[in-house]
Write a structure and sequence with these properties.
Number of domains: 3
Distance between the termini: 46 Å
Radius of gyration: 24 Å
Number of helices: 19
Largest sheet: 7 strands, parallel
Strand order of the largest sheet: 8-15-16-17-18-19-20
Number of strands: 23
Structural class: alpha/beta
CATH topology of the largest domain: TIM Barrel
Length: 590
């Protein structure tokens, strides 16, 4: 059966769908199914995440969609000679998880290039670089990712650390948050970056306080000064990375991802399209196209044209990604009050207010879903102002703009999310007093602001749709069960120390955290009629866990394992009772 024919329900299937809906209604006994199901799952605990948060024991699947959700006896009517029947043994079943902000396209760098995540000493990092170079004696350049801002001074790591092991070819290592690059002296020389080089707009060349010489750390747009030394990945490399990420995500029960930023006309988009064309994409991807602040509205035609090229069943690009500011660790987040360690400096927005108004109005007029990176409270206020301007200019519509990260948010701005129909997209993996809190956030922001980072309860209470995300590979592992636990406990897994709980008043409930990774994520991606809950007529995206999250302490949720993942009715991951992958680990950034 071809992909296209699989997605057009037959008349018989529609009859079965109606029968399933009737059968699953409370107090309605099912009759014989007109068409036997392809798959029946029985003896489970289905937390459906429907409007009533109802529970069921069984589900039947036909042509990739649920045709029945209800009792075991009701599901029996859908069993035919060829129906596969799976006894779930009382396990918990949830809708497939949805990660509403991740960088799948960065997976080649994470899985196949030099990876120094988790290394904290100069000696460890130098050994990793030395070993990587020794295994590639003819390499003309080395690139990778993963150094932590917490391991170095505020001016970032020094070029001479790399020079000591690799000095003859350029080396470029992205920070774990992706907002800075650490290069060696060879890369600086080839890129022509010297003491006299000025900071580019929106960027910062870190310099030695005594000499003014570049340290080797390039923040934000300054990283682009050395980008030409490192050619873009090929389509085949990107596909290799995407498939590696896909295997990992499915093992964590993730069946839909919002790819946070893709360049129009790039190998990145070609890689996704070719994977879908060849039937190798086994998860749903919705993506945002990067909007260049230098080009402004002049790029609108390019963005529209690119969006029209990507209309597959699994891969589409309906969004437009705006960076409003940088990050706290680089002192590039845009704040309402000055940084503690930089008196008088609040950071700078990527867009001037008038330009942000214009681009948001233009994107909204073209029916793009606006997707904004915002860390500082001033940045969040700025994007809300611009979205309000777009609504005033174009009229209200169901645009569902996404604002992600939300490290600092003015209390007065929280209700504006609901008023403007903005979806909040936080990363609950970061809700903790960890090394970033103690080494960067508290010193850079002061304890009062650091203690009021990452609101969550406030958004739920204000009626805001909250769709959680990982920001992979900023967060590794991107296991939603870790985030669900941390959204409830607001501390790192395995700590159990009340002193390490971040802003306890902002704790969410288990039900809210599950919704944030399921139906709310579907809503954030205009998919709530297709997935996000276990209901007749929706795609059979689901995850089976080895533990019932409703029956274990909150601080044990991250220890649960995925034993089965279905995507559109097909098994895309199965582990029996064995662990699928590490359930917990060290978060790779704040």
């Amino acid at each position: 059966m071809t992909l296209s024919s699989r997605r057009r329900p037959s008349a018989l299937l529609l009859i079965a769908l109606i029968a399933g809906c009737l059968a699953s209604a409370v107090g309605c006994a099912p009759g014989p199914a007109s068409v036997p199901a392809d798959l029946v799952l029985k003896n489970g605990v289905f937390y459906t995440v429907d409007a009533s948060s109802s529970r069921a024991a069984a589900a039947a699947v036909k042509d990739g969609k649920f045709v029945y959700v209800g009792s075991d006896s009701g599901a029996s009517a859908f069993i035919g000679k060829a129906t596969k029947v799976v006894d779930l043994g009382g396990r918990l079943v949830l809708p497939g998880f949805i990660d509403s902000h991740a960088h799948v396209i960065s997976s080649y760098r994470h899985f196949f290039e030099l990876n120094i995540f988790g290394l904290t000493t100069v000696e460890e990092i130098q050994k990793a670089i030395r070993d990587y170079a020794a295994a590639r004696p003819g390499a003309e350049r080395i690139s990778g990712r993963g150094w932590s801002n917490t391991a170095f001074p505020k001016t970032g790591p020094d070029r001479r650390i790399i020079d000591a092991v690799v000095a003859d070819i350029p080396v470029s290592l992205a920070s774990e948050d992706g907002h800075s690059r650490w290069v060696n002296s060879k890369a600086l020389a080839l890129a022509g970056i010297t003491k006299e080089t000025k900071n580019p707009p929106g960027g910062l060349i870190e310099r030695d306080p005594a000499t003014g010489e570049p340290t080797g750390t390039l923040r934000e747009s300054a990283a682009g000064l050395a980008a030409g030394l490192f050619p873009p990945f090929t389509v085949d490399q990107l596909k290799q990375g995407i498939e590696a990420c896909q295997r990992m995500a499915l093992a964590f029960g993730i069946t839909t991802v919002h790819e946070a930023s893709l360049d129009s006309g790039s190998n990145e988009i070609t890689a996704f399209r070719e994977l879908e064309r060849d039937g190798r994409l086994t998860m749903r991807i919705r993506a945002s196209l990067y909007v260049d602040p230098v080009r402004g509205p002049a790029q609108l035609e390019t963005l529209v044209r690119e969006r029209e090229r990507n209309t597959g069943d699994l891969f589409r690009t309906p969004g437009a990604k705006l960076f409003i500011d940088g990050v706290v660790e680089g002192s590039t987040a845009y704040l309402k009050e000055p940084y503690k360690h930089l008196p008088g400096f609040r950071g700078e927005p990527v867009w001037k207010a008038a330009d942000l108004d214009r681009i948001c109005a233009a994107l909204d007029r073209e029916k793009f879903q606006i997707h904004a990176h915002s860390i500082g409270d001033a940045a969040t206020a700025g994007i809300l102002d611009a979205l309000a301007f777009a609504r005033k200019t174009n009229g209200a519509r169901d645009g569902r703009p996404l604002v992600t990260h939300l490290q600092l948010v003015d209390k007065a701005d929280v209700p504006r999310f609901a008023e403007l129909g903005v979806v909040a997209v936080p990363q609950p993996y970061w809700f903790a007093k960890d090394d970033y809190y103690f080494n960067l956030q508290a010193p850079f922001l002061g304890r009062e602001r650091a203690d009021a980072e990452y609101p969550m309860r406030s958004f739920f209470d204000a009626g805001v749709v909250v769709a959680s995300a990982s920001d992979f590979p900023v967060t590794v592992p991107c296991n939603p069960l870790i985030a669900i636990q941390m959204g409830i406990t607001r501390e790192e897994t395995g700590t159990g120390d009340p002193a390490l709980v971040l802003w306890p008043e902002e704790k969410a409930s288990l039900e809210e955290m599950i919704r944030s990774f399921t139906i709310n994520g579907a809503y954030a991606n205009f998919l709530e009629k297709e997935t996000g809950s276990i209901e007749p007529g929706k795609w059979a995206d689901l995850v089976v866990l080895d533990k019932n999250l409703f029956e274990i302490p909150a601080d044990e949720i991250a220890s649960a394992r995925v034993v089965l993942t279905l995507f559109e009715g097909k098994t895309v991951y199965e582990a029996g009772d064995a662990p699928a992958a590490p359930a917990a680990g060290t978060k790779e950034r704040p």
